[in-house]
Specification:
Length: about 80
């Protein structure tokens, strides 16, 4: 790899503002805020609005919204194949 053109890759804490959970991983993202982690070290923290801890698909709370009977209309039109 060509030196000097790649961003720094290091440990970063991502904190989910919706659920309050946080996880430590490696990333090229940077942040001005820092947090003291469980291991006693200080890491940059990036606040995210949604993660796998709060996303409905991953938490199992996802719902299928049927507006105006579109699912039934599709089933009538094309039948159960």
């Amino acid at each position: 790899m060509k030196p000097g053109i790649h961003p720094a890759y290091g440990p970063v804490v991502f904190r989910d503002t919706a659920s309050g959970t946080a996880f430590l991983t490696r990333s090229t993202m940077t942040a001005d805020k820092t947090v003291d982690w469980e291991d006693g070290n200080t890491y940059p923290v990036v606040d995210v609005e949604i993660s796998s801890a709060s996303h409905p698909f991953y938490t199992g709370t996802a719902r299928v919204l049927d507006t105006a009977g579109r699912v039934e209309k599709f089933q009538r039109r094309y039948g159960a194949c």
